[in-house]
């Protein structure tokens, strides 16, 4: 009776751990706060900020700024390069703008308030499809995936329990 109960417990534990691992790695979309603690403001090098990040379709950019002083406009490449807003795709001036990168390719954002884009308030990011992103664990957010060592530990632990029980 005890052996049967232990075997059942191990089976439930193994299935639970596998489900947790699957669910955690599926939630790998990342939320990026543009400019980190500096937010969406003048005096921030947004090219450098974006340079060490890998953006994937499904990721979200959060722009934090003073409402009434700044805004966020998603624009065409041409408007981005010339700091104009003649072809705005979307815009917001709420003070906290969340933009989900819903399609692969280049996305351009500027502050549409005159003068600020030319002072550096512009950001261009490339969103890659999930299949084209490097398959390294480092490209996932810490909150969105398990580290390889953790996965190996969990697999080893479950295997050891199964061997001890005698499956």
TrEMBL record:
UniProt xrefs under Gene3D superfamilies: Cupredoxins - blue copper proteins
One Gene Ontology CC term in the entry: plasma membrane
Pfam families (alphabetical): Cu_bind_like (PF02298)
The entry's keywords: Glycoprotein, Membrane, Metal-binding, Transmembrane, Transmembrane helix
Keyword set includes Transmembrane: yes
Keyword rRNA-binding attributed: no
Positions of transmembrane segments: 12-34, 140-162
Domain Phytocyanin residues, every copy: 30-129
UniProt GO MF annotations: electron transfer activity; metal ion binding
Coiled coil (UniProt feature): none
PANTHER family assigned: BLUE COPPER PROTEIN, OS06G0218600 PROTEIN
Protein name: Phytocyanin domain-containing protein
Source species of the chain: Dioscorea zingiberensis
